[in-house]
């Protein structure tokens, strides 16, 4: 099984719970991994029969910068859902969001929210 990986896509966003995050904004990083049978999908060497990483990037950018969320968990879920709606032929998708700065006293590495799903999960989630 092949994978399309788009690591460390960085976006400036006004998402977050704290007033400072909504007012001043912050940079976040989004990682996406698409589990996809590349080995059989691209035998003809044609972009139309595979998943374009440019299209993945644009979808992630649009969800991240054009919508507003209090929780990074909600943003991660929204990205996952939109990716699954767009590309039904995937085996699964992983999305991780890193926040480099949190208005919290202390020393820490980026906080990371991670979600995963499959097309079958999307069908279950949409039925609820």
Give the structure's gist in a few sentences.
The protein has five helices and four strands, in the order βαβαααββα.
Structure in words:
By secondary structure, this protein is of the alpha+beta class. Helix content is 38%, strand content 30%. The protein contains five helices and four strands; from the N terminus they run E-H-E-H-H-H-E-E-H. It has a four-stranded antiparallel β-sheet with strand order 1-2-3-4. Helix 3 (53-66) runs antiparallel to helix 4 (72-86).
Low-confidence stretches are none
Instruction: Provide the spatial order of strands within the biggest beta sheet.
Output: 1-2-3-4
Overall pLDDT: 89
Cα separation of the termini: 30 Å
Oligomeric state of this protein: single chain
Gyration radius over CA:
16 Å
Element order: H for helix, E for strand = EHEHHHEEH
Structural class, from secondary structure content?
A: alpha+beta
- Assign a percent range to the helix content: 25-40%
Strand coverage percent: 25-35%
List the total number of helices: 5
**Strand segment count:** 4
